[in-house]
Amino acid sequence: MTRAPSRDRSGRPDAVLPRAVAPPATRRVSRLALLAVIGTLAGCSSISLPGGFDLINGEPVTDSARQPTAPRPEPDARGVISYPTYQVAVAREDDTVAAMAGRLGLGAGALAEANGLPETASLREGELLLLPSRVADAGSPGGLASGGEVDVATLAGSALDRAEGRAPAAAPGTASSQSSTPTGAEPRRHTVQRGETAYSIARRYDVSARAIGDWNGLNSTLDVREGQVLLIPVATGPAPDVAAVTPPGSGSPTPEPPSAAAPQPSENLPSVAGAAAASGTAAATATPPVTAPQTGASDTARLAQPVSGRIIRGYSPGRNEGVDFGAEAGAPVRAAEAGTVAAITRDTDQIQIIVLSHAGGLLTVYANVGDIIVEKGTSVSRGQRIASVGAAEEPFLHFEVLQGAKRVDPVPYLSR
């Protein structure tokens, strides 16, 4: 059954699918049916899928493993928060793009364009908008004249700055107000791309989705729109340690998920299929290769690699509960072992997921897939195609292995 695309307040198709992919009643029945299957197969009280969604409790579960963040600074009397290289404004009750622009002496078109909104858009109270050019700090001469009238000289200067693509120079005698210029690190900005959600962005920057929502004034479901500029909350410390579950054959080092701010390592990680063929020279390097103990085919060689490609992100309990294979969009995704399709669902990011049940209480999870060609209850054979790698800016397949209710490192289970 097809579903008409949702539309945002601009009338354009919404870039981010809503959380509900079916009418509430249907969604509830589907979820209960899915929970019954997973609960029966795994014999557990809680299983969370990629994207941080707890299938049993229906809530995101990954925030506790994210970096703690500072609260958003308080704005000045106009609702402006000033940073060294940019400014943002907090919307008031019943605010609009045009009203905010007029209040701050900005062009409504420029403000709308900077935030991916139409000029006529209504704003939610607390919503954050990026200012296209700098306005005078609160209490500084040359900003807003008494009575809220716009200072024409300042407005003209700002227009020139916008035309030349540079930040406006401060007026003589202008000093930053402590009330509107926060101390500490300047938050990073992120422009929402098609298909992104608050949860996927939170994972990228290793902060909680709720913190992103609080900083940017998102609604209760943390909806974002294409072109929206988000401030990434400033971290106040490292992510807390998460107790790891020791899987069979664990202990092999795995690479840390790459930072969004740093390029991926230039050296190529060994593919699963080629890990055992690593040369003696490579084994002598400072970073040990990913290896698995040779404990017999019943454990370490039980599963086939689900997609052609190398591991680009390794297993890291509390951060990456599986492995990610770099692969081309549309590449075949195959069953790692014979079994039955236990569930086909989506996580909070609307990423499609397939769960297969295998003998011995083993479950395998395939996330970020498309073109699914199996149905719930379908019996599959080892190596049978079940879907394709989903389209993305950097396509990959997320693969997990669960032994009962516990996620384990997939690498020891994969064929050599």
TrEMBL record:
PANTHER family: MUREIN HYDROLASE ACTIVATOR ENVC, PEPTIDASE-RELATED
Record-linked InterPro entries: Cell_wall_metabolism_enzyme (IPR050570), Dup_hybrid_motif (IPR011055), LysM (IPR018392), LysM_dom_sf (IPR036779), M23ase_b-sheet_dom (IPR016047)
Record-linked Gene3D superfamilies: Glucose Permease (Domain IIA), LysM domain
Name of the featured protein: Peptidase M23
Domain named LysM: residues: 188-232
Region (Disordered): 60-79, 163-197, 241-302
Compositional bias segments (type: Low complexity): 166-185, 261-293
Source organism (scientific name): Meridianimarinicoccus roseus
Taxonomic path: Bacteria, Pseudomonadati, Pseudomonadota, Alphaproteobacteria, Rhodobacterales
GO molecular function annotations of the record: metalloendopeptidase activity
Pfam families the UniProt entry points to: LysM, Peptidase_M23
